Amino acid sequence: MQPASQRTQNSILALFSFFPSLISLLFLLHPFHLPACLSKSCFFPASPSSIMLDTSAKPTEGEPQSPTSPTSPTLSGSRYSKHIVLTTYPGQSGIDPIPLEWGAPDAKSRGPVVVSRSSVLLKRRNAMGAHGGSYSIYNALAIASGELEPDFRPDLSNSQPTFNFPWQPAWGDKTKIVSMDPWGHDIVNQFRDELDKGWDIRPTMAVTRANMNFAEISEAVKEGKLEVDGSIVVDASGEVRVTKVAVEPVWYLPGVAERFGVDEGTLRRTLFEHTGGSYPELITRPDLKVFLPPIGGLTVYIFGPPERVSDENVKLALRIHDECNGSDVFQSDICTCRPYLAFGIREAIREAQNGGSGVVIYFRKEGRALGEVIKYLVYNARKRGGDTADKYFTRTENIAGVRDMRFQALMPDILHWLGIKKIDRMLSMSNMKHDAIVESGIKILERIPIPEEMIPTDSRVEIDAKINAGYFTTGKQITTEDLTAVRGRGWEKWEDITH
Ligand SMILES: [Zn+2]
């Protein structure tokens, strides 16, 4: 027996089924299909049919238009039908998601992650969002502009990993890995039958190898600080061989919610509201537990034989590095990012040359995951306000509301995927990274701060403020009083004046 509210909803849908444009109006004016309660115990009603928006609806000429009435974009050509399925419901006719059991011990019993909204898979998809992280939008642009067919299927011949990472118990543990697909690199092997049927299943990870030339590494080789071994450091120019793993985010929502100490309903509602309502199924499909968010992923750089990474009997040097384009690539000197990255790569290479393993993991979390616009606004506020270390975090908090949005809670997943059980030399001073790793069950034996001589003068404001706030140091502990005396470069030599 359906609850009264469900029966009312069904009658309304039946009443208006002959007037699609009215339904679209109702959808916007009265979002009656959205359950008000989002807790796990809440009943999620199942709708008998998907809500359809008739895009042919046009505002009546001459009539003043309500700001809430739908204005429809003009569709040209016949790529899409004129009806849009805005969302779906569990129990709805034809809805039959492909089984997906996160945390199952092997890929086949876990099931493929199917996110495609193609006509074949819309009712069978078992995940929300889209492939490609933030690049999913470019993919849509390519289709919109006619450069890419909507039903394009990649030919994945020869794209398989250059190294087969050994299975780890964490791959089948739904508490250890919640933000990536442990089989995302191996779908061609694991889901051959489904691919042969034409299902749109895509890799969310890729493993390759490369030769790299990094200026500071070349310098270290020239100065005799790194030796040429012919295998990792290939020659006297400082060319280095590396194995790389790219990972796109795939979130198991119950696990992500648990890491952040919130209930799943709150997480879903917040993601829905603060992406402009982009993913209605976060609300209407509590049975779908997996979400591919439109955010950047990460890259693992492994120096030395990749099989050593999970070998507990050899030493591991590791740097977790969060993106800072201005410093990492363009070498602005306001922070220690590039110098610490260079130090991390150097020490990782050195550990690998000593028979151990060296790993650098690069996360796309620009400017503490606040983005460059916020970061530059903070720079201005700092430089115009007298750039002292005691005000360092306040300036960020004033503009961003928080001092950091990197939230390291999901970061250790990749370490568990790699099979890392202990880190001998952690090339990071961050207490947040340290705590997240240790709390996830991986031991850290030694922490290595950036050497003093690698710290640019203007970045003392940042590093001293961080040390005072809890960053690890083997040097001087910085008191709050000390911070007032740590001052960055001003803009005196720049004409920051009105004309
Ligand atoms: Zn930086």
UniProtKB/TrEMBL annotation:
Keywords assigned: GTP-binding, Hydrolase, Membrane, Nucleotide-binding, Transmembrane, Transmembrane helix
A GO BP entry: riboflavin biosynthetic process
Listed transmembrane segments: 12-32
Keyword hit for Magnesium: no
The keyword Nucleotide-binding is assigned to this record: yes
GTP cyclohydrolase II domain sequence ranges: 315-449
Low complexity bias spans: 62-78
Domain GTP cyclohydrolase N-terminal: 82-274
Annotated spans, Disordered: 54-78
Pfam families listed in its UniProt record: GTP_CH_N (PF12471), GTP_cyclohydro2 (PF00925)
Homology family: Belongs to the GTP cyclohydrolase II family.
PANTHER family reported for this sequence: PTHR47259, URACIL-REGULATED PROTEIN 1
Protein name listed in UniProt: GTP cyclohydrolase II
Lineage of the species this protein comes from: Eukaryota, Fungi, Dikarya, Ascomycota, Pezizomycotina
